[in-house]
Design brief:
Helix content: 40-55%
Radius of gyration: 25 Å
Structural class: alpha+beta
Largest sheet: 4 strands, antiparallel
Strand order of the largest sheet: 3-4-5-8
Number of helices: 15
Distance between the termini: 31 Å
C-alpha cells in the first residue's frame, strides 16, 4: 500500500484500492484519518474511498488551489464540515442521535433535521447571510436564496445532492473560461452544428423550399433572460408565480411551466425572431393571392409548426436552477448536441454574448448565495 504523499492533492487521482482497507467484518473504511483524527467510518468501498479523500484534503487550508476547481471544488464543503467535526455527508453518526428534529437557533443560524423518503440529513440556514443578501442591491438574489432555504427545510437530502451539482456547475464555469479550451470547443461545435442544422432543415421542409439551411440571425431571442426574447416578460411572470428553486429532482417543473405559459404562439414568436427569413416568407405569401401563393404559404407554415413541435426548454448551465437567466428555447436536434460535459463553451457561443454574460454572472452569484445561506450535512 502506498504511503501518504507529500503533495496531498495527489490522492484525488488514486484508485479506490489505495484509499481503503477492509475490516474483518467485511466493511470498508478509509485508510487515512482527517485532520481532527476522525472520519474513519465504515461503508461501501466507494463511500470509504470518498471519505478518505475528504479526510486527506481536510489537512489543507481553505484557500489551497485544489479547492478552486474540479474534484477539490466539488468536495470543499464536505472537507470543511469534516474539519469542523460536523456530521458526515451520509447523515448519520453521533450528532444524528443528539438532534431530535426540532429547530434551534445559535448566533443567527438555524439547525434542524430533515427526514424524507430520500434519506435523513441535517441542514443549517444562516439567517444573517440571508439578511445581508436582502440588504444588497440585487433583491432578485435574496428572493432566490430565501426560496432555496425553504426548499432545504422541506427536503434537505435532495438539497444536499443539488448543492453538490451546483459545485460541479461552478467547476464547469471555471473550465469554460479557459481561453484555449473554449476556442477549441467552439471550433468543434461549429462543424457539428452545421450538420445538425442541415438535418433539421431537411426534416422541417425548409431545405426543399430554400435549398439552404436555416440561419439564426438573432441568437439572444431564444434566451429567456434577455429582453431580446419575445417571451421575456411572460417567462419572468410565470417564474415569479412559482418562485421555486427546488433541487433538480423537481427543478424541471419550471421548464414545463414556461412551456405552458408561452404556448405555441410564444414559441412561434421566438422562432420567427431567431429566423427572420421564415417570418418574411410567411408574410410575403400571406399578402399574395392565387393558388401557388397559398400552397407556398401552407408549406412555410408547416415548417414553422414542425419547429414549434420540436422545440425544447432547457438550461444554459445544466444541473442548475430554473431561473429565466439560465434557460432557453432550442430545437431538439440542436439541443442534444450540447452538454456541460461535452461542450459548454460551444453552447455559450451559440446563444450569443448576452446569454453568456447574463447566465454566467447569475450562476456564479446564485451558487455563492446558496452556499452562504444553506449548508446541508
Amino acid at each position: 500500500m502506498r504511503p501518504l504523499p507529500r503533495d496531498l492533492t495527489q490522492v484525488i487521482g488514486w484508485p479506490a484500492n489505495d484509499l481503503v482497507t477492509k475490516e474483518r467484518s467485511g466493511k470498508w473504511v478509509p485508510r487515512f484519518q482527517s485532520v481532527i483524527k476522525g472520519g474513519k467510518r465504515s461503508g461501501t468501498k466507494a463511500q470509504a474511498a470518498e471519505d478518505c479523500i475528504i479526510n486527506v484534503l481536510s489537512r489543507l487550508a481553505d484557500n489551497h488551489p485544489v479547492f478552486d476547481s474540479g474534484r477539490g471544488l466539488e468536495l470543499k464543503d464536505d472537507v470543511i464540515a469534516r474539519r469542523d467535526g460536523n456530521p458526515p455527508p451520509r447523515g448519520h453518526g453521533a450528532r444524528a442521535s443528539i438532534l431530535s428534529g426540532v429547530e434551534y437557533g445559535v448566533g443567527g443560524r438555524i439547525v434542524a433535521k430533515s427526514n424524507t423518503s430520500v434519506g435523513v440529513s441535517f441542514f443549517e440556514v444562516n439567517e444573517r447571510a440571508l439578511a445581508d443578501l436582502e440588504n444588497a442591491s440585487d433583491g432578485e438574489l435574496a428572493g432566490y436564496a430565501a426560496a432555496f432555504a425553504e426548499d432545504a427545510r422541506a427536503d434537505a437530502p435532495s438539497a444536499k445532492v443539488y448543492l453538490r451539482e451546483q459545485r460541479l456547475a461552478r467547476a464547469r464555469i471555471l473550465n469554460a473560461s479557459q481561453r484555449a479550451y473554449a476556442r477549441e470547443m467552439r471550433w468543434r461545435s461549429k462543424r457539428a452544428l452545421t450538420r445538425k442544422w442541415r438535418i433539421l432543415s431537411m426534416r422541417s421542409g425548409w431545405w426543399a423550399l430554400e435549398k439552404e439551411i436555416l440561419k439564426v440571425e438573432c441568437p439572444e431571442a431564444a434566451f429567456f433572460g434577455s429582453p431580446e426574447c419575445p417571451v421575456f416578460e411572460t417567462v419572468d411572470a410565470s417564474y415569479r408565480g412559482s418562485i421555486k428553486t427546488a433541487p433538480r429532482s423537481s427543478h424541471d417543473g419550471d421548464l414545463r411551466l414556461y412551456r405552458a405559459a408561452c404556448g405555441d404562439e410564444g414559441f412561434a414568436l421566438v422562432i420567427l425572431k431567431r429566423i427572420p427569413l421564415l417570418q418574411q416568407r410567411i408574410i410575403h405569401y400571406k399578402n399574395k393571392t392565387g393558388a401557388a401563393a397559398r400552397a407556398k404559404l401552407i408549406a412555410y407554415v408547416k415548417v414553422l409548426k414542425y419547429l414549434i413541435k420540436h422545440s425544447q426548454v432547457d438550461h444554459i448551465w445544466s444541473s442548475a436552477s430554473d431561473h429565466p437567466r439560465n434557460c432557453y428555447l432550442e430545437f431538439d436536434i440542436i439541443n442534444n448536441l450540447f452538454s456541460d460535459y461535452k461542450n459548454q463553451p460551444g453552447k455559450l457561443a451559440h446563444y450569443g454574448k448576452i446569454a453568456k454574460r447574463v447566465s454566467t454572472r447569475w450562476m456564479t452569484a446564485s451558487i455563492e448565495a446558496e452556499s452562504r445561506v444553506v449548508r446541508v450535512f
